[in-house]
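Hi, here's the filled form for the chain we discussed.

Project: internal
Contact: R.S.
Residues: 49
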Amino acid sequence: MADLNDAIQHRIDNAPLPTKQTLRARQNPFTQFFRFIFFNLKMLRVVFK
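And the returned structure, exactly as it came back:
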């Protein structure tokens, strides 16, 4: 079991980190609002198909 945890931790350590621009976009309320609206519109399109 410890080997599995070590392997998982190694994969987590080697995962790419987001850039500063990506972090800014994720924390920007306006960006989040438009992403939310866009996602909901896509869901509605699937529901009403």
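Let me know if anything looks off before we file it.
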